Structure formats: structure tokens, C-alpha cells
Amino acid sequence: MARCSFEYDRDEATGWRILRMRADGDTPEMNTVAEFLPEMGSNLCRFAVGDTEYLFGTVDSNGHKMVLGTPILYPMPNRVRNAQFTFGGKVYRFTPNNGTNFLHGLVREELWEVDEPIVGMESVSVTTRIGFDPTRSFWDSFPIRNMLELTYTLRAGTMRFSFNVINEDSYQLLPFGLAIHPYFRVHGGRDAVRIQVPAQKWMEAENLLPTGRLLDLEEGPADLREPTPLSKLDLDDVFWGLSESRPQTIYYDELEKKVILTASDFFTHSVVYTPPDRPFFCIENQSSSTDAHNLYSQGLEKEAHLTVLPPGASLSAWIEMSVNDT
């Protein structure tokens, strides 16, 4: 029977608080440890099953510790063209951080609130949240009162992300997209890691920004419906048409393990990032396209899959990351 626990720690280099959760399995190879950083975007920076670390947590860059892990991207996943969009007749502007574009949302480096963890025999869970209100530094860029809640639930071999988005504004619509951006480790070389993304279409792109055209996979840079080695891929692309019944899978052939990324039907898109010269790769469940707000304003609602919540409304969705034998 699983044994679960949690503890708090501090990162020596940065002083960030770490919440460490543990769920022991029936065998040592299923003992699972997860860590996340409430003070740095509620980032899941560690997910280890047995002796294997599956996430690439932090890197030192010119003496500065940078978190990779699993950034939460909200309320606009990935890039926003020219760091602005128009919705409801209002222009929303952001500070460019990717050339002329804005990248990766507003919450990934912010302080999140964290509740007391709940420990059971089979799981340990904790809810974190971040609110949008005038006290936030990013309020002028996105002045709509709303709340993003995230509950991490750890079981032996599995981490579940349960999201709840609440529009707390009294009169404004809330247009948003939501994503995770996990940096997975390469184990055993790029020939020994295969990825499978059972999408229906590839989103044509120019300068890493979707044009809005959905093309057959044969017309894109890769058809990932069958497991494909990383050694054959150099991608930073958006795929469309994912569903809960068709999870994404990472095959670690040398480990004889696979990581399955299952998500509720809300997460229709995936960004696949496979830089050939880096020790990591990314498979990013997204509820919307990259640059979704601008595509939506062009009438491309299906392609963008932007969510628009009326005042007082809420929406729940989930993603699950699980390690299994191949």
C-alpha cells in the first residue's frame, strides 16, 4: 500500500521555498517524488519515479539559476504576435520578451498562494492559486479580475494537474488559453527516445507564429502519429486535434519505460519542441493555439480554440503525467 508525505525545503542558491511530495509504491521502482516552487510560478521542477528523473529542473546560466521544470502558461500560451492583441474592442499590450513578440504568459515567474497539503494513503495533493487584481505587477497588461487554481495530486508513478479558472470580474469577459511547458530529460541518447503525438492537423506557421491554416500532417515537418525518434526531429511546432482518448506518449527505450501525457478534451493543441543540441525536449499540452487571441480576432475560432468565460463563470480541466513499463 502506498505511503505518502510532504515536506518544505529551501533552494540554497535562490532561497525559493520548495514543496516536496512523496508517494511510495508497492515496489521501490515505483517510489515517486515531486517538487514544485510556489514562489516561482508554482513550477513542477522535479518528477522522479524510482531512480529516474524525468524533468530537467534547473540550469545555471551565466551565474544565474534558471528554472525549466514545468512552467504554467496563462492566460496566453506561447507567443503573442507583436506583444499585443485586441479583444472586445480593447487593445492588450505586453512587454516584448521574444524579439517583437511576447512569450509564455504572465504567471510563470510569479508568487502563488499555496494551501496546506492533504495526505492520504494513496495520494498527496496540494492546491495553489494566483489571482489577477490591481496588486499584481502585470495588472495593467491584463486588467480582468480572475483566478487560476492548480491542484497537484501525486500518486505512485503519476502526477495530475487539476486546473480551475474563475472569472471574478463583474462585467468583463475573460479570454484565455492555458498550457503546461514540461522540459523532459533525454535518457539514453536521442535515438533511444521516441515521441508520439496523435494529432489530426499541423498548424502552418511563419516565424514560429501560426498563420491559422490547419494542414494535413503529411504537409508538415513531421507526422508523429507513430512513435518517432528525437534524432529525426528538429521541431518548434503547433499540432491540433488532440483529445483525452488519444494521449501523447514518450518512449524511453533504454529505460523500458514510457511517459503518458493524458489530458481532458479541453487541451486540443500541443506544441512540440525538440532542439537537437539540448539535453531536453518539450511536449506542451495547450488549450489553445499559439497566438490564440489574434487568430480569434481574425474569425479563426476553431483554429484558435480561445476560451471566453462570462463574468462569474468557471472552467475545470486536467492533465496527467504517468510513468509505465513499455
Report on the architecture of this protein:
The chain is mostly beta strands and 326 residues long. It is 3% helix and 48% strand. The chain has helices at 292-297, 301-304; strands at 3-10, 17-24, 32-37, 43-49, 52-53, 58-61, 64-67, 72-73, 79-80, 84-87, 90-93, 102-103, 113-114, 118-119, 124-132, 146-155, 158-167, 174-176, 179-180, 183-185, 193-196, 201-206, 209-215, 228-229, 236-240, 248-252, 257-263, 269-273, 280-286, 307-309, 314-325. The strands form eight sheets. Strands 13, 14, 15, 16, 17, 21, 24, 26, 27 and 31 form a ten-stranded antiparallel β-sheet that branches.
Q: Can you tell me the overall shape?
A: globular
Helical content band: under 10%
The number of helical segments is: 2
* Rg on CA atoms, Å: 19 Å
Low-confidence stretches: none
Largest sheet: 10 strands, antiparallel
Q: Which structural class best describes the helix and strand composition? A: mainly beta
Oligomer: single chain
Q: Write down the overall mean pLDDT.
A: 96
